[in-house]
Amino acid sequence: MNKIRKVAEQFVSSGNVVNVDEFGNGNINDTYLVHVDDQGIENFILQQINTYVFPRPKLIIHNLRTFTEHVNQRLKNGGFNLNRRWDVPKILPTRAGADFYVDAQDSFWRAISFVKHSHSYDTVQSMDHARETGYALGLFHNLVSDLDSKRMHDTLVGYHIAPQYLQQYDHAAASQTRINDSPLVRYCHQSIRERRDLTSILEDAKKQGHLKTHIIHGDTKVNNILFCDKTDQAISFIDLDTVKPGLIHYDIGDCLRANCNPLGEETTDFDNVHFETPLARSILEGYFANAGTFLTENDYAFIFDAVRLLTFEQGLRFFADYLAGDIYFKVKHAEHNLERAVVQFKLTESIEAQEKELRSIIADLKPSG
Ligand code: GN1
Ligand code: MG
């Protein structure tokens, strides 16, 4: 922690760093909460960007600047009648006035402000909470719906492009880095075999012009949303490294995948993994309240496919990483990515079993006219 404290000091112009604590449970970057002793200087978030995953971290900083300026402008002039706080974390400069710090080992660090009087949850707590979660995503999409995609870089090439994950899986399976023929491994291969044909559904729709590129968040788990300590309303969306051009369906699908799974991504109680459709209804209700103004007929038509695909994709990503020897996601033990993959494939089965209900919820909530 001494080394990290030294890095933290680079972002403090007055006062001392008194403590640095590990923060959150991200699978990619290392995140810390830095406590500073000077009154008037707020505690802040320090992150070491994983440059294996994000090989061009300066693009993240560029996007963050463009995004923040745009959103703050929209909040000022956009005619929003929000009746709530909505905060965007700020990039904090180093003592030298830069947006990031590169240490002697060439590691890339950046600091962002901590949104005051807020808290987050790892799982959705109630129907109201689910509605707030959807509301936050809808507001996020709304605020960037007029941000020109060309002004934002691709910080993570191939992210959420499901056919590319399928290729990576095929490659990892063929290279046989990890030889294991357990029932769980066979189950994963089988799950992929049965669904390979659906992998390109969103990319095909994009190519055919049915779905258009927007600015997306990229990682819409509920623990990336901050809630107000006083009102418990959603007040900020954090983890902005993957804010970049993409399909809003990646976000909607991923939001339902991540947040309608009460047992969570890390469970090993595989037989009880299920998709909680009533939560999906509440999330979509909240989402449509803010997104109704820019969604098209085709956008609605592909929502079910997105939920199924993004869940299958996450299984594919975990399993391909397992087969490749755990090079992308952080793991706590040798079978961790395999177990995570099984959870996602079980969740995919549960989504497929409820296709009719889900489609009718979407049709039901869709504004008529
Ligand atoms: C990664 O590190 P974290 O938890 O913010 C991943 C997401 C996955 C998620 C699964 C850049 O996000 O795509 O959905 O793990 N982020 C990246 O928990 O790959
Ligand atoms: Mg993330």
Give a structural overview:
- The protein is α+β, with helices and mostly antiparallel strands and 369 residues long.
- Helices cover 44% and strands 12% of the residues.
- The chain has helices at 2-9, 57-77, 127-144, 162-175, 183-195, 201-207, 248-259, 277-291, 297-301, 303-324, 336-353, 355-365, and strands at 17-22, 30-36, 44-49, 91-92, 101-102, 108-113, 118-119, 214-216, 225-228, 234-237, 244-246.
- Strands 1, 2, 3, 4, 5 and 6 form a six-stranded antiparallel sheet that branches. Strands 7-9-10 form a three-stranded antiparallel sheet, covered by helices on one side. Strands 8-11 form a two-stranded antiparallel ribbon.
- Strand 5 (101-102) and strand 6 form a beta hairpin.
- The site of 2-acetamido-2-deoxy-1-O-phosphono-alpha-D-glucopyranose has 10 residues, from loops.
Low-confidence stretches: none
Rounded mean pLDDT is 95
Small-molecule binders here are:
2-acetamido-2-deoxy-1-O-phosphono-alpha-D-glucopyranose, magnesium ion
Radius of gyration, CA atoms, in whole angstroms: 21 Å
Largest sheet: 6 strands, antiparallel
Outline, from the CA principal axes?
globular
**Spatial separation of the terminal alpha carbons:** 58 Å
- Helix and strand content put the structural class at alpha+beta
Percent range for β-strand residues: 5-15%
SSE order: HEEEHEEEEHHHHEEEEHHHHHH
Number of helices: 12
Number of strands: 11
Share of residues in helices: 40-55%
